[in-house]
Amino acid sequence: MPDLALHRIDLNLLIVFATLMEERSVTKAGERLNLSQPATSGALNRLREMFRDPLFIRTGRAFEPTARALEIMERVAPALAAVQAALAPSIPFDPATDARHFRIGCSDEAAIPLLPALTCVLRSEAPSCTLSVRQADYHSAPALLASGDVSLVVGYVEDDLPANAKRRRLAEGRFVVLRADAAAGPIGLDEYCARPHALVTYRGDLSGVVDEELARLGRERRVVLGLTSFALLPLVLAGTDMLATVPDIVAETLAAHGGLRIDPTPFPAPANTVLLAWRGATDGDPAEKWLRGKIVEVMRGKGP
């Protein structure tokens, strides 16, 4: 927009634009901004006139941004983040009365111990606040933070985060063996390698870091089931002789509901670290600081 005076622009439209880019839905964007669907559609029409581009095109059920919209977002996002960072410390937050919508990312292994307790905290201490949770593994977390789709992520996501991301270690853990059978334990290495295994990865692979450790010992296990969710383990292990080698914070949460037992691994397994990472733009936001503090409280004491 060369030579276009800022005083002639409704800068609120840029907030609508950024929300549309994140939600890819007029209805969902309006809900986030407390606008009616006609008001959101009207803002989109004004944006189209301002930028002289359709910005979003409906292809089937999808609401896809144009190349021009992607270019605009790349330039606008840092500016909005800078404004948000500048204003955040001056906007107070009272969890008892404020209605804030938090958007976070969690890896599956972090969500299981975190979300039940965090949900209780929110319902008790911040009853008017809402929470959206995105799946965020080490592959997707950097992009979710960089785009602003989430304000923070929790999980095993330490690598390749955005340069301005802040981070804090929440828990140091170890792998343990989870099983549903009643055989006497603990499991020895020979039996561990002989029995069938279920493995949870974000892609449902049949090999993981535990297999790399076994290979160093000249051993291997037989993975017969690849899953993408730890929450399925109580169902798939029940009534079988399968084993699952999982982070201890996951095992303790699942075993607490009954039907599962925990054994130590019969070999030195790699350690794992649960990380809290957040966008630099939200570092001083009182509401986000409150939420991060509650996450730290919930996760404190997890692991060995």
Share of residues in helices: 40-55%
In total, how many beta strands?
12
**Radius of gyration over C-alpha positions, nearest whole angstrom:** 23 Å
Cα end-to-end separation: 56 Å
pLDDT average, as an integer?
A: 88
Question: For the report, how would you describe the main beta sheet?
Answer: 5 strands, mixed
Task: Enumerate the spans where pLDDT stays under 50 for 5 or more consecutive residues.
Answer: none
Helix and strand sequence: HHHEEHEHEHEEEHEHEHEHEEH
**Silhouette:** elongated
How many H/I helices? 11
Proportion of β residues? 15-25%
Label the structural class.
Answer: alpha/beta
> Strands of the largest sheet, in order across it?
4-3-5-12-6
Which short descriptors sum up this protein?
11 helices; 40% helix; five-stranded mixed sheet; 21% strand; 304 residues; alpha/beta
List the helices and strands and how they pair.
Blueprint: H1 12-23, H2 26-33, H3 37-51, E1 56-59, E2 62-65, H4 67-87, E3 101-106, H5 108-125, E4 130-135, H6 141-147, E5 152-155, E6 166-173, E7 175-179, H7 189-194, E8 196-200, H8 209-216, E9 222-227, H9 233-237, E10 243-247, H10 248-255, E11 261-264, E12 272-278, H11 286-299
Parallel strand pairs: 3-4, 3-5, 8-9, 8-10
Antiparallel strand pairs: 1-2, 5-12, 6-12, 7-10, 7-11
